[in-house]
Design brief:
By secondary structure, the chain is mostly helical. The protein has one domain (3-330). 80% of the residues lie in helices and 0% in strands. It has helices at residues 3-22, 28-38, 40-65, 74-89, 95-146, 154-180, 183-190, 197-206, 208-223, 226-253, 261-279, 290-301, 306-330. The radius of gyration is 21 Å and the shape is globular.
Length: 338
């Protein structure tokens, strides 16, 4: 990627962080008190996310190797992964920033087609694992409700039914996408969007062969490279489970639950319900408001106080801002190959 293009991504990320800091509706006093309360657990949370990013980079590496060799050093993949997520955090509608950046960075190493297909496959697997993560949370919640640990009123039943239908629809859509490809269908859909018809038609005609090859590479991962497919899925799904430790650490601080396995299960459910609610508001940068509301409702459903929900949401926001800043910083280093 040319430095000029990289600087555009960098400038956009910096502006987004400044905007988010000014719209962070928490007083400095409360923010500092919560950071002090978290103490060394905040260090553990930040370190946990380094582990999660390593798992994301491993997933991407497995996907790339599913279609050939991977000449990119792992540290480079990790760097691009962290920066890609940083741009996604800072971008309204999520994938509008990180994925184009990752494609441009990978293009000199593996070519435009493989770069595009690998980035799309990683994004698909990341979301696909989320759907299974959310579906798992429904089963776990029902088991805990049946043994009397959690409430199961009419409103919660409606929420679980909605989640179940949403997850089944998402899983079905991605399975179809893995079997038949997805890019051509997306372009065909864009052709029907007012204001985009002409651009999409010209783009589809100009890049017809490339789009079909990318779709072919996407479908090959599931049909011909099952080891890569299931290996990348395993890494992403386990990553979602490991992410639950972020909330678990904070619940321990408040002596919420038994401090053992049940507390971890509560953390799993809080993360699942909160991430689903926040992703339904994907158009908001850093999911401002949606994440906080999701935490408030989730901890309340687990029988915990609103103070815990506020604390968890603030510390998660601090973690996101920290890693967003790190991602933007490392964007400017180690860029020898243009």
């Amino acid at each position: 990627m040319k430095n000029k293009t990289r600087n555009i991504f960098f400038a956009f990320g910096i502006i987004a962080i400044i905007i988010m800091l000014f719209t962070f509706k928490v007083s400095f006093v409360q923010l500092w008190e919560d950071i002090m309360t978290a103490g060394y657990w905040l260090v553990a949370i930040l370190a946990l996310w380094l582990v999660l990013y390593v798992m994301n980079a491993l997933t991407w590496q497995v996907i790339i190797k599913g279609s050939g060799d991977c000449p990119v050093p792992f540290w480079k993949l990790l760097k691009i992964t962290i920066t890609g997520f940083a741009l996604n955090y800072a971008t309204p509608a999520g994938l509008m920033g990180g994925e184009p950046y990752k494609i441009m960075e990978m293009k000199p190493y593996i070519g435009a087609q493989r770069a595009t297909s690998s980035v799309l496959l990683f994004a698909m697997m990341h979301i696909f694992a989320h759907f299974w993560f959310w579906a798992s949370s429904i089963v776990i919640y029902l088991i805990l409700a049946l043994v009397g640990n959690l409430p199961l009123g009419g409103g919660m039943v409606a929420v679980l039914i909605f989640m179940l239908l949403f997850c089944f629809a998402g899983i079905y859509m991605f399975i179809r996408g893995y079997k038949n490809g997805l890019v051509v269908k997306i372009i065909n859909f864009v052709k029907k969007v007012p204001g985009c018809k002409k651009w999409a038609a010209n783009f589809a005609e100009k890049h017809k062969d490339d789009l079909q090859k990318i779709d072919s590479q996407i479908s090959e991962l599931q049909s011909q490279n099952k080891r890569s497919f299931y290996g990348s899925f395993f890494l992403e799904y386990v990553g979602r489970i490991c992410q639950s430790f972020e909330i678990y650490f904070m619940l321990i601080l408040f002596d919420a639950g038994d401090g053992g396995f049940l507390t971890f299960i509560y953390s799993f459910l809080i993360l699942a319900f909160t991430s689903l609610f926040a992703n339904l508001l994907f158009f908001m940068p850093l999911q401002l408001g949606g994440r906080e509301g999701g935490f408030a409702m989730s901890v309340a459903q687990m029988g915990m106080t609103s103070d815990i929900g506020m604390f968890v949401s603030i510390i998660c926001r601090v973690r996101e801002l920290f890693w967003t800043a790190v991602g933007l910083f490392i964007m400017k280093i180690g860029n020898n190959k243009q």
